Amino acid sequence: MKTLNCNYEVLNPTIVSGDNCYVFDEKEKKYLDFESGVWCTALGHNNPQINEAIISQLKNISHTGYRYTTKVVDEAAGKVLELLHFNEGKCVFLSSGSEAVEFGVQLAKKIMEKPYFLCLNNYFLSSYGISATRNKEEWISLDLSKYDGNIDEFLADVPFDKIGAFIFEPGNASGTVKLPEKALIKEIADKVKSNGGIIVVDEVTTGTGRTGKWFGFEHYDIHPDIISIGKGIGNGYPVSVVALSKEISDAAEKSGFKYAQSHQNDPLGCTVVKTVVSTIESGNLIQRASKMGTILDFEFNSLSQKYKCIKEVRGVGLMFVIEFEKDIDFPLEKVHKELFEAGYIVGANVPANLLRFYPPLTIEETQIKSLVNALETILLRYIS
After folding, report:
1. Is the pTM of this model over 0.85?
2. Does pLDDT of 265 surpass 70?
3. Measuring CA to CA, which residue among 260, 270, 295 is closest to residue 366?
4. Which terminus, N or C, of the chain has the lesser number of Cβ atoms within 10 Å?
């Protein structure tokens, strides 16, 4: 290979095509993709509606400049703002999830009136910038491993009168699926808001139907001010969105906040966003993701009741992990590779001792049961 792969093992360098939940290699072997690429292809690979929209827009214009725009940019913004009930809010379209999160955090820093960010410890936000480094002079991190269910005691030392923004990622947790308690998150958000702070939500992975709702924060009864969206919103095309409430967009304009990059508000990316939203709506794919998630949950928990090597099943919608016991001789890496050889692409986190399952919203019940059967067959080879 002539490309740097950043320490990820390449299991098959010859993938040549995709069709909905499958990808194919040059020998025409097919793999059922339970990772949606890098959690991106919410509508499946090679989606015809997205392809047609891209081709149509390419025939017109794919890229503009800072001082002029096209109609599709406002149309895409309108679709996103309508989903969020951000009446008179505004959107910025960017190129990656990390960029969208960093934009939201940088904007919050510019306009917030208090000195500290508040976040959950060990929840990934961005690959770079202040949302990645999170230095202790500006950030207060809450360690959920120390939370025992007593909300008042857990939050007793948090200086809410000095919190300018709560930065919340609703449970992906770097692909380990750790879903915070709803009552705790609501209490944090309420305290931040009542003290004049801002709620910024990272929906890069948990948005676009991944959790069985349009956005992960909808499971928590909170009202964000800034929402960063990526991955599924582009279905594999590199586009992200930052949505701002009217109050935040007004404050941003008054503050003089500036940001510029080459592909900001590109009509091609906006066409993709608009089409992804429309396709999910017309296909009732949010409801479908919730239904398929219930099936996935049942099948995985049925496995966990049969095999003591499974420590825990965690998930919501189509975002699940199976964590295995660490104190037994269990070959996670071998199981992962054997699944791949059997034609199933799933995620693996060896340090966390888990397998990860983030299939497209278009996954079928028969495909779920096929994966579960394959996993059980492999497990039986290593369980005496």
Report:
1. yes
2. yes
3. 295
4. C
